[in-house]
From TrEMBL:
Entry similarity comment: Belongs to the PdxA family.
Free-text remark on how the cofactor is bound: Binds 1 divalent metal cation per subunit. Can use ions such as Zn(2+), Mg(2+) or Co(2+).
Note: The active site is located at the dimer interface.
Self-association and partners: Homodimer.
Catalytic activity: 4-(phosphooxy)-L-threonine + NAD(+) = 3-amino-2-oxopropyl phosphate + CO2 + NADH
Protein name as it appears in the record: 4-hydroxythreonine-4-phosphate dehydrogenase
Length: 323
């Protein structure tokens, strides 16, 4: 029997606890997962049952949300993060990583955190979830992929101003991103011979250097080097013609040069079902592609679709690795 998936609480004041219960209701007959958090933070009347070990989730899943108890210092007030809970959020993530690395959990799915709350309450030293997970895993670099049934896309640079992208977009960074993406497509998605489309940085991929030299001088040489090793790479391609249906049919993943170049297409195509996947870690990690949504926390209006898809994808990736 495969190990269940670990789902962390994330920021208790956000929608994480609510959508965890909704995800259990949707998936109770499909796959097994357990929630790591403080039961006091679950919505009133939620159907949950405490477990003493992850594998007990298989026996509980059909009748109640399995909860691996992790007590926090404060209560939950929807929409109002409590600084006293910050260390609990951080520790729950670290505990989940230990369980995945030991084999007690098959994969990690994380509910959204609120970075400012963690910094204010526990002097959190990382820009976000991904960097913290990479540090826990001892990974040199982790890469973000946004995935849905319609598109998989990887931004090479992420949370930096657009003006800083050209300088940050080094050949080494691009090569590393493509290699990590290629390996993940094989290992986690079961694509034996990955086809990767690579976007140009400038409009029309530079149009023969008429609109910038980065595409011909910085991107194209990296692709040529990797092609000589046998990687199936297309590009640099004009980003404005990469994401229509016929173009998407010709590749298994797209590598973009900056945040919005990657995220606008997938959020336009499949806003609710997009899943954030972290590549380059020694374990599987997925998360919903949204934030804590403090403005609707506690109102009963949160949409659990992205979390449901994140748990499903984690289960499929775990099966691919096991096969």
């Amino acid at each position: 029997m495969t190990a269940p998936i670990a789902l962390t609480v994330g920021e208790p004041a956000g929608i994480g606890p609510e959508i965890a219960v909704q995800a259990w209701e949707a998936l109770r007959g499909e796959l097994a997962f357990f929630w790591i958090g403080d039961p006091r933070h679950l919505p009133q009347g939620a159907n949950w049952q405490e477990i003493s070990a992850p594998r007990a989730a298989h026996d509980i899943m059909s009748s109640a949300l399995p909860v691996l108890r992790h007590d926090f210092a404060g209560d939950r007030v929807p929409g109002q993060p409590d600084a006293s809970n910050a260390q609990g959020v951080i520790d729950a993530i670290a505990r989940a990583v230990r369980l995945v690395r030991s084999g007690d959990a098959a994969a990690l799915c994380t509910a959204p955190i609120h970075k400012k709350a963690l910094k204010d309450g526990a002097d959190f030293a990382y820009p976000g979830h991904t960097e913290y997970l990479a540090a826990l895993a001892g990974a040199q670099r982790a890469v973000m992929m946004l995935a849905s049934d319609q598109l998989r896309v990887v931004p090479t640079t992420i949370h930096i101003p657009l003006a800083e992208v050209p300088a940050a977009l080094t050949p080494e960074l691009l090569e590393d991103t493509i290699r990590i993406t290629h390996a993940a497509l094989q290992k986690d998605f079961g694509v034996k011979a990955p086809r990767i489309a690579v976007a140009g940085l400038n409009p029309h991929a530079g149009e023969g250097d008429a609109m910038g030299h980065e595409d011909s001088q910085r991107i194209a040489p990296v692709l040529e080097t990797l092609r000589r090793e046998g990687l199936d790479l297309r590009g640099p391609l004009p980003a404005d013609t990469m994401f229509h249906a016929a173009a998407r049919a010709r590749y298994d993943a797209a590598v973009a040069m900056y945040h919005d170049q990657a995220l606008i297409p997938i959020k336009t195509l499949d806003f609710d079902r997009g899943v954030n996947v972290t590549l380059g870690l020694p374990f599987i990690r997925t998360s919903p592609d949204h934030g804590t949504a403090f403005d609707i926390a506690g109102t009963g209006t949160a949409n659990p679709t992205s979390l449901i898809e994140a748990l499903r994808l984690a289960a499929r990736m775990a099966k691919t690795r096991a096969d």
